[in-house]
Amino acid sequence: MATEIKLPRLGQGMESGTIVKWLKSEGDQVEKGEPLYELDTDKVTQEVEADASGVLLKIAVEEGEVAVGKTIAVIGEQGEEVAQSADGDSGGDDAQVEERVEEEGSPGAAREAERDEGRRAAAAEASHGNGGARQPTEGRVKASPLARRIARERGIDLAQVRGTGPDGRIVAEDVERAEKEAPAAPTVAAAAAGEIEVRRLSSVRRTIARRLTDAWQAPVFQLTVSVDMTQALSVVERLRTLHEQERPTVTDLLTKVSAAALIRHRDVNAHFVEDEIRVHPSANVGIAVAAPQGLVVPVIRGAERLAIAEIARARAELVGRARDNNLRREDLEAGTFTISNLGMFGIEQFIAVLNPPQVAILAVGSTEERVVVRDGGFVAVATMTATLTCDHRAVDGATGAEFLQTLKTLLEQPALAL
Amino acid sequence: MAELSYREAVRDALATALRKDDDVFIMGEDIAEMGGSMGVTQGLLDEFGPARIRNTPISEMAIVGAGIGAAMQGMRPIVEIMYEDFLTLSLEQIVNQAAKHRYMSGGQLKVPLTVRTQGGAGWSPGAQHAQQLEAWLVHVPGLKVVFPSTPSDVRGLLYASIYDDNPVVFFEHRTLYGLKEEVPDELERLELGRARVHREGDDVTVIATGRLVHEAMAAAREAESDGISVEVVDPRTLQPLDEETLVESVKKTNRCVVAHEAITRMGFGAEVAAVIQYQAFDWLDAPIERVGAKFAPLPFAPVMESFVVPHAEDVLAAVKRTVGK
Amino acid sequence: MARAEHTAELSREQLIEFLREMLLIRRFEEKVEERFRAGDLPGFLHVAIGQEAVAVGVCRALEDGDVFASTHRAHGHTLARGTPANAVMAELYGKVEGCSHGYGGSMHLYDVERGNLGANAVVGGGLPAIVGAGLAFTLRDEPRVAVAFFGDGATNIGTFHESLNLAQLWKTKSLFVCENNRWAESTPGWQHSPVWEDMSKRALSYDMRAIKVDGQDVEEVHAKTREALEHVRSGEGPVFVDVETYRLHGHYIGDPQVYREKDDVKEANEEHDPITLLRGRLSIENGEFDSIDGEVQQVVDQSVEFAKNGTDPAPEDAMKNIYG
Question: Model's pTM, two decimal places?
């Protein structure tokens, strides 16, 4: 019976070989073990011996690359019929040769199937990563470290955030999204793109609205001065090195200087209440702060008596509490004068709205180099514009002007404030 | 109760097993008359004789391999490798043979061999006499790895290792041999794979091994006065690792420091950190810190040696970093 | 199960039994080559064609209770010691019914019940354990021997030297059988060992008793092994057996042996085939020979069927037998 000669696997991992030359021709007698053809593998060109004895009835693949397991020749008895499958080139034989090969008990192909099976079983099992079994996180807010950091930085309460990560974990994206949904109005529904977002007023906002409306009814006038801040800046510089922990700012200096001016012009340190003007003995200077919940004005009481370092410390504490929405009642009470500083936003000058029942409010812009005329020449001077808004029912133009003049003088020569 | 040093505790475990079982015997270099380079086996020759307390030539492969062969025949040999660094000479037998016979035979064979060795820096032993190589061994399936840090632990765990039916690589630390502890009169066999909490705390968990357990305890006391409450846990068995105890602790404290004397980079601590990170991700309030030796061979000069190896201060600094101080 | 022959001289029946055993190994190995080429068998395979007399001669000289460790060329030893062809073939096919249950393959054949402590893929890797086993027998005073098979290539590696040194020092009940086929893969003896012409010199340096054996004469192998075993069993000390043999095929299946002279291969096959030699010495009739051949061929063919129809391990079985 004819024997099909198939390309043998001559090494682990060998998938194909290239027939270089046949050492026997069709019709030749062949002995088992005799070199039959030359084969080129990855490693070497070698002679391959015949698996069987007989007549080389057919050479199915003359030369070229052949896959392991494919029939390349047939050896049998003289005159024997050669099975159809051995005819033609290796390409066309595929289907039938494959089938025969499977019958014999599968070549590399079947082992491949096993390897695939092993791979699939491993993939199916590995649903829970490499670190070991995960346990449920009952009770604890699940949030990624990044999400926690963002929440911390922006003052967002994680308990209010809905998590979309694995296991309902809050991820950074969730916190960002929560922030966009106005934190001051808890009843707001997230607006879909294109819709008008309706924000109901919180109680803080309602209070602000009411008071500003009141303030708007007062007859006011504004006075503006430009202040040479050279001395003031250098004083602040020196104060910062002196008081490393408190780190006084320009605002602190302003507070101190305003307080000094208020004591010298007591009419400005007053409240207008119905038809009374109440002049206060001490300057309780309020600093306008933009807190997450809205504008608040914490007050530094008795600022005229405090050293700059103490003012700085008090200011830091109050601003911190304001930002954390932790201000106490007494922080906001008894203010006699307010300073509003929009300098950090690059605003050169603005007019602040009165903070009733206070009779005056100071609006301060940014300090920047401006060209001024001096001694017939031009110089660049660090200049800040300050605007005083006064309630005309309590403060006259001259009174206001004198106050502002004192303020400017004290800022330009801070030593005079001592 | 009796006060035993770490060294005496090892000896006690060996002697107890030798007395109990004729199948237990010890092989190693200079372990007989000399009693071992660290004095651990002193006195054993007198009690058990040269057939069971066998001095060997300097042949780490043959020593370990002979241990494997005897173990496969049902004996319980304990092989002493003088210095952890010399483990490298016997690695082929430990890794290719001992660790794999059970597996390759499809479960027909077991290798109840215990390989004891010691290592560690201090007193300038030099680069080839001081390594901490536990990371190499925990990476091999089929091996168990134990590294106790106290007399009671070393006694109970060595005894357990001898009677474990798997090959165990048992690390001792040279600087701990003199450490004393009150231990029960009777040997208490401990279970492999269970960690021990040395100190409870609320703010940060320090997972430490070997000498660093004691450095961690010192750091913990220091941290206390700084208002930081430190929990110190010793895994004791590195493979299998008591992940549950470690993770539970970090879930309680939310912060973790892993400390070992071995080089930090690619060390055993890296695996612990990865396991903790994965299983306690949502409980972590700070990145996991690792304390270990710097990535250098061990220098000879004391000033340099001291620079490279970790100390209590390093653990303390790491602890403080986790709480943001 | 292999039984030790107790007579000093072997009867014709016994020798024919040896022939049958050698022929079983030969046909098994040829079948393995065929199946490997057909793509059935994964992994590396190294056949013992030409070295059957060593396997049969040594293994049939062992007593119950003796143990041995083999090399990467382990099929012959495994079959000669009595592991059924079915179990060996099934192992090569990676089936649960294999002697190592699919965990080991050709280079990690184990049959602990029959004293087969495993084939080893690391050259010289099994020797130290044979020292240890011999030590255990000494300590427990058991009349058992541990045998290490290895090739000339292994006589250069550290474990070989440490093992011989320790075995001789402690007089462990160990037998060291060096199958000296003069080839370490593709490196001929003269290129790897300064004492390649007389390997017994290796034993000399350890003061170990050494004997030389013609590995193609199964009778001589058997007789000399019995002698050596007696010596070892008595506790007198280990013995090194330098067995001269021939590797008739390549190092691994598919090895074209480009490094070996064709004449060398031809000569080995024509002059040194142990089966041909024994057949000649016994003057067996062709009929009788063919009958034996046919019988073993059937055993071999059936083993392939057995293996193919065997059970594949479940993928998760990979995680078993690591610890116990």
Answer: 0.70
